[in-house]
């Protein structure tokens, strides 16, 4: 079980299962929504994600039809994204985790979109798009 919260701590979550397919995403959309060089995201089964508090503060922005980015309306922390094409999972922003996790990133994705000031000095595989194991 993992605990997570937004910056202001008004939204708090519990993840009761594994976090899978963790990646560092360098696409321009993740960079803009996180304000950083990349966003580290992992999938969580929707049924294993529970709100302890602040559910009413969570708002969303529909980036494309059926694709929403959910955030705290008080502090604007990005929390997770959802996709109508994959209704059983959400993509968690790992920066909100308060707990240590055992899972680790598997790759850097969309590296051709990376910020020009970012260097990829890691041994993880680098892909121009999604990691090959993504279905």
Question: Main traits of this protein?
Answer:
single chain; 135 residues; mainly beta; seven-stranded mixed beta sheet; three-stranded antiparallel beta sheet; 10 strands; 5% helix; 39% strand
Give the topology.
Layout: E1 2-5, E2 12-15, E3 20-25, H1 28-34, E4 39-45, E5 49-53, E6 58-64, E7 67-72, E8 78-83, E9 89-93, E10 107-109
Parallel strand pairs: 3-10
Antiparallel strand pairs: 1-2, 2-5, 3-4, 4-9, 6-7, 7-8, 8-9
Quick overview of this protein structure:
The chain is mainly β and 135 residues long. Helix content is 5%, strand content 39%.
Structural description of this entry:
There is one protein chain. The longest helix is centred in the N-terminal third of the chain and has 7 residues, at 28-34. With 135 residues, the chain is mainly beta. It has one helix and ten strands; from the N terminus they run βββαβββββββ. It is globular, with a radius of gyration of 14 Å. The strands form two sheets. A seven-stranded mixed beta sheet has the order 6-7-8-9-4-3-10. A three-stranded antiparallel beta sheet has the order 1-2-5, with no helix packed on it.
- Widest β-sheet, arrangement of strands: 6-7-8-9-4-3-10
Main sheet characteristics: 7 strands, mixed
Tally the helices.
1
Q: Tell me the fraction of residues in β-strands, as a range.
A: 35-45%
Mean of residue pLDDT values:
94
- Give the end-to-end Cα distance, rounded to a whole number of Å: 25 Å
Helix fraction by DSSP (H/I, runs of at least 4): under 10%
Supply the helix-strand structural class.
mainly beta
Low-confidence stretches: none
Spell out the helices and strands N to C. EEEHEEEEEEE
Task: Tell me the total number of β-strands.
Answer: 10
Shape call:
globular
What Rg is obtained from the alpha carbons, in whole angstroms?
A: 14 Å
């Amino acid at each position: 079980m993992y605990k997570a919260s937004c910056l202001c701590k008004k939204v708090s979550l519990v993840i009761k299962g594994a976090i899978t397919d963790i990646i560092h995403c360098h696409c321009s959309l993740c960079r803009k929504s996180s304000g950083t060089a990349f966003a580290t995201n992992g999938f969580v089964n929707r049924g294993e994600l529970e709100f302890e508090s602040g559910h009413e503060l969570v708002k969303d922005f529909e980036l494309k039809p059926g694709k929403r980015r959910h955030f705290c309306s008080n502090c604007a922390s990005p929390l997770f994204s959802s996709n109508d094409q994959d209704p059983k999972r959400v993509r968690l922003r790992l920066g909100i985790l308060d707990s240590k996790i055992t899972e680790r990133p598997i790759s850097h994705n969309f590296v051709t979109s990376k910020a020009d000031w970012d260097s990829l000095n890691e041994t993880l595989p680098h892909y121009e798009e999604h990691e090959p194991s993504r279905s």
